[in-house]
Amino acid sequence: MTDFQRIFVVGAQAGADEVARLRSSLRPGATVLTAPTAEARRVVEGLGVDPVPDVLLAPVRFPDVDRGHRLDELVRRHALRDRFRDVVVVTDPATVTLLLRALAPDQLPMTGAVTEVGLPRGPRPVPLVQAALGGAGLAFVAVLAANVVPIWLLPLLVVVAGVVLLLVPRLRHLGEALLIAVAVSVAVSLLAIAGSSRFPGSW
User: Fold this and answer.
1) Domain range spanning residue 14?
2) Which pLDDT belongs to residue 203?
3) pTM over 0.85
4) Residues in Cβ contact with 147 at an 8 Å cutoff, skipping those fewer than 6 apart
5) Does 106 share its domain with 155?
């Protein structure tokens, strides 16, 4: 299933209620690009996020032919720095129109001053190194606790947690990491058992 990065294009004429709704929907750490104007500053202050001003977003009376392309490139460049972060663009209505034509030409315009655009992105990468290290640690703990609880209990609990996280799209990568960690822990445990059988007294 295709996932999307959220891009919010906001006109500097946005009302306080629209700004408040946008602020409540933003994820922590959002990037806010803004035109260096007083109107845009009012919107940014309502969002409560430190902005990144850019003169390219400033209003112009006679836009160049490639202005829409350059606006699109600006937004995508910031979006690519973190594909799992919301991006907000605050500028004048004319620049909003040009940006939306370039960024999402097939999307129907939304009512109000806030338009949400979704840029396709791949799934969040699984932290393989951390999963492998966690699996080795899990095997070590499971073996140490074998005198108290069954050796399979701790890996089973981790499997259950991993399966639950797989059902949450934003946390799927963590679920996959937990399942990988369990697989590593089982492999490490089997190697340890085989080694102790081959060399009695070494474990």
Assistant:
1) 4-120
2) 46
3) no
4) none
5) no
